[in-house]
């Protein structure tokens, strides 16, 4: 049985905050892969992009995810993890994949530092283009999709916990 829960979604969807709440409520560990990248490389995500490019950040993210060997954790991923089939296959093997689906307008309201947030995107790519491109990938990999537009973070964490209980009860 898969003992981990992985949260995927766009920057600003609430993966880290909801992940912490979910981990606490379910008495699980918590890992944020963006934080792991920053610890391993001793620089921000934006600094990695500025020093190389968005593809280098995606390669680093893939490497970090492929190294994950944990049980009983909530894993909050970077938004670009879905570009790596290898990373997603690994996550699917060790965890239930939850997509926090938040509408474009709501994400725009939440994110004010799009250009400096460390988002792995092409230099010429708009947030709207990135949203459309990634949403297809998130849906492809999601075992469960949670509407992240309604409810507060506590309620969303409870909704995820309930969905996980249903899956685990059915298996």
The secondary-structure class comes to alpha/beta
Mean pLDDT over the full residue set: 93
Low-confidence stretches: none
Order of helices and strands: EHEHHHEHEHHEH
* Oligomer classification: single chain
The biggest sheet, with number of strands, parallel, antiparallel or mixed sense and barrel status, is: 5 strands, parallel
Structural domain tally: 1
CATH class: Alpha Beta
CATH architecture label name:
3-Layer(aba) Sandwich
CATH fold assignment: Rossmann fold
Strand content: 5-15%
The Rg value, from CA coordinates, equals: 15 Å
Q: What is the number of helices?
A: 8
Placed side by side, the strands forming the largest sheet appear as: 2-3-1-4-5
Choose one word for the global shape. Answer: globular
Give the number of DSSP strands: 5
According to CATH, the homologous superfamily is P-loop containing nucleotide triphosphate hydrolases
Distance between the termini: 8 Å
């Amino acid at each position: 049985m898969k003992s981990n829960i992985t949260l995927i979604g766009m920057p600003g969807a609430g993966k880290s905050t909801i992940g912490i709440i979910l981990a606490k409520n379910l008495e699980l560990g918590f890992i944020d892969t963006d934080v792991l990248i920053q610890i391993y490389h001793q620089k921000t995500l934006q600094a990695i992009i500025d020093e190389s490019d968005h593809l280098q950040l995606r390669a680093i993210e893939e490497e970090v995810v492929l190294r994950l060997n944990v049980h009983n954790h909530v894993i909050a991923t970077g938004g670009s993890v879905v570009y790596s089939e290898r990373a997603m296959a690994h996550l699917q093997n060790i965890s239930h994949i939850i997509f926090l689906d938040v509408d474009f307008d709501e994400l725009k309201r939440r994110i004010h530092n799009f250009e400096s947030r460390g988002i792995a995107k092409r230099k010429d790519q708009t947030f709207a283009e990135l949203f459309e491109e990634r949403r297809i990938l998130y849906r492809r990999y999601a075992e469960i999709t949670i509407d992240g537009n309604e409810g507060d973070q506590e309620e969303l964490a409870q909704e995820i916990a309930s969905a996980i209980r249903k899956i685990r009860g059915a298996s």
